[in-house]
């Protein structure tokens, strides 16, 4: 359950104008809020400050908002270093519009459950938002409202000089950010149909919806715990339909002090709020006057209409693509030591990268070079069909990790065929830091203690090697039973996965302790032991969907 107040109450005042602008090569960093700033005072109070964004007519290839949270006893929210409950906020900026201002949302976030939480310790935990499409708004002084007083916040804006995939000409609030009652959204009495005049100077348009459900109304606890269907009608036609629902079982921040593993409407405790983007260009022409109507499925007469949703709908107008051909590496998922990828790392298995086409013409063949920094690179040829702005996750053949000691750097580079010239090679190379996986002996014991109440049947495990060969597997566990499984493996790279079908781990159902104490049950456990009985590794019981460990036998 998340608790919140509208941002307009209890804002904490920082300095009049935030400083902290630094250049490094082609990158400008603006750091308006740091861990040293006082925690805001008041119920769910937020930070507010004036940020001096660059006013020069510089082209930016990418703009990022980097948000880092840290548990600290100096926070003003409650008695815990990290706030006890999951609270929602949006990062908002006020943009002058004539004699007034207009508020735009740059992104939403819900804090994690803070009891007994380790949030990256002293360095904190980092979330990155790509806010490149808000470039027209991020100019000159802007009032910024963000965060709350549950954790300490360090907020940084990173402007990377270069050429964007297409220029963003304007950003418009179709329906501004707000908290809306489900009843009024369903009856279309709050957000009526809008008439929009599309820019004659633009060549492309897109819509973005940022939606999260809240409250515990009706028999299914709407709108936090219910998936609802949302619709955009363009000129009266049902053009885009989507469901707002987020899988929380593999949340990288775990264990938390609440019901964090259970799926929710557009968010998880300790995550960004989901954004839904739709390319409008094929259905309209520059200069058109169109009607746009947002709607949500009708409510049932069971009390759920009292639930609420936090919503922002925005229209973006663009110029033409900047390039005919431009391949880019968006991200390295494996190997990577970033917080957000900690569920799948450390890893010594197959590297996984995300590639994207930023050019107007399709990409069908790409040479991918990859390997450890300072060592000879492997290369493969990717074949497919990436249209403009389409991305794909690519799993690469495994590397030989014998040169790695404890940590290192991984590099991936994209090269187009000789018949095609990549017009923006600056984004063809990406590098990630990584840590070497745990080393285990060739023989050890997998010790599993199952829980009760019929939940042991939800579990299974396997141990596989880098080729996908499964060496050990078991399901159909019995309740309240201890299993000692001898494991013997040759030297190599392996993966251990222990999963739970209900995505609630093998910990007690402590939330039943008052309403249904006979349904609390017992904690299970999973650990590795040496052949002599010494403990090698203990896994947390409150793991949500699965435990995944990549390891090396040397």
Helix content: under 10%
Structural class: mainly beta
Q: How much of the residues is beta strand, in percent?
A: over 45%
CATH class bucket of the largest domain: Mainly Beta
Q: CATH architecture of the largest domain, please?
A: Sandwich
Rg from alpha-carbon coordinates: 25 Å
This entry's quaternary arrangement is: single chain
Distance between the termini: 46 Å
What shape does the CA trace take? globular
Low-confidence stretches: 2-18
Whole-number mean pLDDT: 94
CATH topology of the largest domain: Jelly Rolls
Task: Describe this entry's structure for a reader.
The protein has four domains: 1-163, Jelly Rolls, CATH 2.60.120; 165-321, Sandwich (Jelly Rolls); 327-436, Immunoglobulin-like, CATH 2.60.40; 439-553, Lipoxygenase-1, CATH 2.60.60. It has a six-stranded mixed β-sheet, with no helix packed on it. The chain has a five-stranded antiparallel β-sheet with strand order 2-3-10-5-8, with no helix packed on it. 1% of the residues lie in helices and 48% in strands. It contains one helix and 37 strands.
């Amino acid at each position: 359950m998340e608790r919140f107040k509208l941002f307009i109450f209890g804002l904490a005042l920082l300095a009049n104008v935030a400083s902290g602008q630094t250049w490094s090569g082609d990158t400008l960093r603006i750091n308006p809020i740091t861990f040293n700033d006082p925690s805001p005072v008041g119920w769910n109070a937020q930070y507010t400050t004036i940020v001096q964004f660059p006013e020069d007519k510089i082209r930016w290839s990418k703009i990022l908002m980097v948000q880092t949270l840290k548990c600290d006893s100096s926070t003003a929210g409650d008695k815990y270093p990290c706030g006890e409950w999951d609270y929602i906020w949006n990062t908002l900026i006020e943009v002058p519009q004539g004699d007034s201002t207009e508020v735009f949302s740059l992104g939403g976030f819900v804090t994690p459950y803070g009891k007994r939480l380790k949030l990256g310790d002293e360095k904190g935990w980092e979330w990155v938002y790509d806010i490149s499409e808000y470039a027209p708004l991020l100019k000159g002084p802007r009032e910024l409202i963000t965060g709350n007083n549950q954790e300490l916040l360090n907020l940084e804006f990173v402007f990377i000089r270069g050429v964007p995939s297409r220029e963003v000409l304007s950003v418009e609030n179709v329906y501004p950010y707000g908290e809306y009652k489900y009843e009024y959204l369903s009856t279309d009495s709050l957000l009526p149909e809008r008439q929009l005049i599309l820019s004659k100077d633009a060549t492309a348009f897109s819509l973005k919806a940022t939606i999260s459900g809240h409250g515990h109304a009706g028999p299914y606890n709407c709108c936090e715990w219910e998936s609802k269907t949302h619709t955009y009608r363009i000129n009266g036609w049902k053009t885009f339909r989507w469901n707002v629902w987020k899988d929380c079982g593999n949340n990288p921040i775990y264990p938390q002090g609440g019901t964090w593993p259970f799926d929710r409407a557009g968010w998880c405790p300790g995550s960004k709020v989901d954004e839904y983007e739709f390319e409008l260009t094929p259905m309209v022409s520059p200069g058109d006057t169109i009607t746009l109507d947002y709607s949500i499925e009708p409510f049932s007469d069971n009390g759920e209409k009292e639930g609420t949703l936090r919503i922002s709908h925005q229209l973006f107008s663009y110029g033409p693509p900047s390039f005919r051909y431009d391949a880019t590496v968006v991200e390295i998922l494996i190997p990577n030591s970033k917080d957000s990828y900690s569920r799948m790392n450390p890893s010594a298995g197959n590297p996984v990268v995300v590639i994207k086409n930023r050019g107007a013409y399709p990409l069908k063949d790409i040479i991918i070079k990859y390997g450890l920094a300072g060592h000879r690179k492997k290369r493969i040829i990717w074949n497919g069909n990436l249209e403009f702005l389409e991305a794909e996750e690519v799993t690469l053949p495994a590397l030989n990790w014998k040169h790695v000691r404890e940590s290192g750097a991984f590099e991936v580079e994209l090269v187009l065929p000789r018949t095609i010239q990549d017009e923006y090679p600056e984004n063809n190379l990406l590098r990630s830091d990584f840590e070497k996986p745990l080393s285990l002996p060739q023989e050890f014991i997998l010790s599993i203690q199952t829980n009760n109440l019929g939940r042991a049947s939800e579990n299974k495990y396997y141990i596989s090697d880098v080729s996908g060969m499964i060496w050990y597997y078991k399901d159909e566990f019995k309740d309240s039973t201890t299993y000692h499984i001898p494991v013997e493996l040759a030297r190599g790279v392996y993966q251990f996965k222990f999963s739970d079908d209900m995505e609630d781990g093998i910990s007690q159902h402590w939330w039943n302790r008052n309403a249904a104490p006979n349904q609390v049950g017992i904690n299970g456990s999973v650990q590795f032991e040496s052949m002599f009985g010494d403990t090698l590794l203990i896994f947390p019981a409150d793991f949500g969907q699965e435990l995944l460990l990549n390891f090396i036998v040397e």
